[in-house]
Amino acid sequence: MIYPILWQDDSVFLIDQTRIPAEYRLVKIDRIEDMAHGIKTMIVRGAPAIGVAAAYGMYLGAREIETDNKSIFLEKLAFFGQQLRQTRPTAVNLFWAIDRMLKTAQETEGTVEQIKTVLLETAKTINQEDIQTCQAIGDKGLEVLPPSPQKLRILTHCNAGALATAGYGTALGVIRSAWKAERLVRVYADETRPRLQGAKLTAWECVQEGIPVTVITDNMAAHCMKKGMIDAVIVGADRIAANGDTANKIGTYSLALVAKAHQIPFFVAAPLSTIDFQLATGAEITIEERDFAEVYQVGDTVLTPPGVDFYNPAFDVTPAELITKIITEYGAVNPGDLKQFQ
Ligand SMILES: CSC[C@@H](O)[C@@H](O)C(=O)COP(=O)(O)O
């Protein structure tokens, strides 16, 4: 099993996702600044993984605070929370984890040292819970996959796998469960421009587990569907509004449109911590815009002539009506029925 975030010898170790598949390297993180940098530069990425990393980041910040005074401690901890909140705006799990750590600190009785111990335990719990949640999503997802054909060909976008969570994955968790249940014949992985999480990370995870995987460029999906090569689409999510509108990696929306045009079921797999009930619709979701360099170059190779303008939104919002089911750890529901989880 792949675990992208490990707590060992009083430090956090992250699998450096900017290096895979060329190199498997662990980065040791001891300070909150380094965790904030790791999230911002995508050494760790994927909504649930960012949440788990932020939880450990809050503990790393907490242990740097030198005071016995609880009010001063809480004030400094809130400041560290602000630092982490500024790393990436779209994945709500980041904010969810920071808020949970702050609430735990506020509600814990005892000395500052005791609160620090409880915060470490809470970060470890968030880590463990996420692995169990993903396994539950995998099992629940299996129940709603199309009954035929027996062996499915599933298309996914970006990486919503073990690397994007504490382990097992959401969309790729359902795919893993389908593989174990002998309901899967092949994964089609969109390469996912501009950062190529599909070509690099999803393909790497599938190869690790011996799951047959075909990488296609993003603009091949409609063609593959028309040729009858795809039975279902499963993607992850970064933030889901109360009405089921779903922000996920850029390109997810067009994939949902072409799936609808070909009458192919389109599933979103995500934990409840990805649902933001404070937002009525997806129009309110903040979309991260990233460095233009991600668009104008691949590796060190510049693709475009000088004098060109660029636009680089990292996510888009798929309207709820294009989503067949949202698969959570408590079961799969119609996007309009999320309120039952509030
Ligand atoms: C289980 S991860 C779900 C999403 O976070 C994933 O699909 C995605 O869009 C990741 O984006 P990234 O920019 O790589 O963090």
From TrEMBL:
Pfam families (alphabetical): IF-2B
Metabolic or biological pathway: Amino-acid biosynthesis; L-methionine biosynthesis via salvage pathway; L-methionine from S-methyl-5-thio-alpha-D-ribose 1-phosphate: step 1/6
Residues reported in the UniProt entry to bind substrate: 45-47, 88, 197, 248-249
Coiled coil stretches, renumbered: none
Superkingdom of source: Bacteria
A Gene Ontology molecular function term of the record: S-methyl-5-thioribose-1-phosphate isomerase activity
Site features described as Transition state stabilizer, chain residue numbers: 158
InterPro entries per UniProt: IF-2B-related, IF-M1Pi, IF_2B-like_C, Initiation_fac_2B_a/b/d, M1Pi_N, NagB/RpiA_transferase-like
SUPFAM superfamilies: NagB/RpiA/CoA transferase-like
Similarity annotation: Belongs to the EIF-2B alpha/beta/delta subunits family. MtnA subfamily.
Free-text function comment from the UniProt entry: Catalyzes the interconversion of methylthioribose-1-phosphate (MTR-1-P) into methylthioribulose-1-phosphate (MTRu-1-P).
The name this protein goes by in its record: Methylthioribose-1-phosphate isomerase
Source species of the chain: Planktothricoides raciborskii GIHE-MW2
